[in-house]
Amino acid sequence: MPPTKIQSNPNEQSAAKRLPLYVSLELRNLIEELMIPRIDILRTVVSTRFVSEAQNVDDNETEADWWPDYSIYSHLHYMTEMNGLMHLMQNALKGMTEDLKAIGVKFQAFVVDHFKARQSALEDEETQPPDDKQLLGRYLLAQSLIKDMVTFVNCCSRHCNKLLAQRTVYSERAADTKGTEDRIRLKIFDERSFTQLHGRMSSLKGFVQDFCDLFDSERQPSVVAAEQDATAVAPASIIST
């Protein structure tokens, strides 16, 4: 199955940064408390590199085992092989869907509380002031983004678990046989897995960072609506499988 992607329009991303969504201080603090540690772990994951190593066998040790001839390197975290990186990815994803769902519940309550005076207008969109419709639309798009991120994280977690299980089989076989063919098969698998997972973790880090930057807590939505013309520019998310 092709990798799951969340795609955002660059113009919408730029506009969203210019016009943050204003939420309560409590909600803003919750978002930072749950997501900032995730960003730190994802930053470590994204810092990793797949490094090929030249064979270094001493002339007097011609029987020395040349394997492995590649390693995983990060200047932020000590690790040497793919198994360790996959477990680090699992740690980064573990519990993240629950955290996002908790934020989603608080965010939905905030939207209902601050826009309940406009709920009756939703029944007749023609009578709803354009600015109010657009402002509420931005909050609803952000709420939809949270759901999309939950889906994306679940897909990443399942894919990582699947690859880790497959790698265990390849790794144990290569360790038992010490055969060149089995070792090369493991290396090819590791290279492909690294490319897939590293790309997804890099995307996820960007999504989470943009999500945190989307909100501010200095002013209330009613004040913002009176001060500026709101446009529906929340990061539009499309998930394709």
Layout of SSEs?
Elements (H helix, E strand, L loop, with lengths): L4 E3 L2 H9 L2 E2 L2 H22 L2 E4 L17 E4 L8 H12 L2 H20 L3 H4 L7 H48 L2 H34 L1 E2 L4 H7 L10 E3 L1
Helix pairs in contact: 2-3, 2-4, 2-7, 3-6, 4-6, 6-7
Short description:
This protein has 241 residues and is mainly alpha-helical. Helices cover 65% and strands 7% of the residues. It is built from eight helices and six strands.
Structure description:
The structure is a single chain. By secondary structure, the chain is mainly α. It has one domain (22-53, 66-115, 129-227). Helix content is 65%, strand content 7%. The protein has 8 helices and 6 strands; from the N terminus they run E-H-E-H-E-E-H-H-H-H-H-E-H-E. The protein has helices at residues 10-18, 25-46, 82-93, 96-115, 119-122, 130-177, 180-213, 221-227; strands at 5-7, 21-22, 49-52, 70-73, 215-216, 238-240. The strands form 3 sheets. A two-stranded antiparallel ribbon has the order 1-6. Strands 2-5 form a two-stranded parallel ribbon. Helix 2 (25-46) packs antiparallel against helix 4 (96-115) and helix 4 runs antiparallel to helix 6. The N and C termini lie close together (7 Å).
Features:
241 residues, mainly alpha, two-stranded antiparallel sheet, two-stranded parallel ribbon, 8 helices, disordered C terminus
Which ranges are low-confidence, i.e. pLDDT below 50, for 5 or more consecutive residues?
10-17, 220-241
Q: Which percent range describes the beta-strand content? A: 5-15%
What is the rounded distance between the termini? Answer: 7 Å
Oligomer: single chain
Structural class: mainly alpha
Counting DSSP E segments of at least 2 residues, the number of strands comes to: 6
Q: Name the shape in a single word.
A: elongated
Radius of gyration: 23 Å
- Helix and strand succession? EHEHEEHHHHHEHE
Sheet with the most strands? Answer: 2 strands, antiparallel
